[in-house]
Amino acid sequence: MGKQIWKPGNMLYPLPAVMVSTADKNGSANILTVAWTGTVCTNPAMVYISVRPERYSYHMIQESGEFVINLTTGEQVRATDICGVRSGKDIDKWKECGFTRGRASSLQYAPIIAESPVNIECKVKSVQELGSHHMFLAEVTAVQVDEKYMDETGKFELNKTGLLVYSHGEYLGLGEKLGTFGYSVRKKSVRAIGRSKGGSGSLGKRSGAKTGKAGR
Ligand SMILES: Cc1cc2nc3c(=O)[nH]c(=O)nc-3n(C[C@H](O)[C@H](O)[C@H](O)COP(=O)(O)O)c2cc1C
To answer: Which parts of the sequence belong to the Flavin reductase like domain (predicted)?
Structure first.
């Protein structure tokens, strides 16, 4: 069996399916679902969203220069789809999805979706007219996270929020944990070596291997 060669197209999956909330300068706010999104810089924290100019939301993002990327969960899959197939020029998606407008801490116009576990507040830096989509390159000005996902040590358990993934036309949940950043080069603890050799492993002490965070 060989490979098929396809014409150029979008096959970079999986992607997050996020709900982007935005508003014009009169305070009229809307939500649209976006999959063409990503992180482009760690410091300053920068992201992009690519939006077709014919979307109702487009003029709001252009006018206010503000939007919020609201991460979505499996529980919000229907709302995520609705915000991606219905237009704000026809319906009030806040009402339709039962969402609450919350205050962004760093923006003047765009609201957050209060029900989302993570709200990434963004200010547009530049717009690149690529073709079918225009890319809004934006700086992250604040991030809000829902305290209900904090564990007892204060760690935000993002992967326990039930994040939603979009892949090749389908919505999926996250699968099981397969590793952690840098785990392949991290030294095994004495306890783990002991266990793998059938020993008691009672001398367990974690190695000082780095978490690898700096690489991101
Ligand atoms: C899963 C999914 C992903 C989408 N991704 C994008 C996207 O990245 N860019 C875009 O312009 N539209 C995207 N859309 C389509 C818009 O969300 C859709 O046209 C929406 O109705 C626009 O809303 P509005 O007219 O209220 O702005 C996506 C739709 C779905 C369902």
So the answer is: 11-158
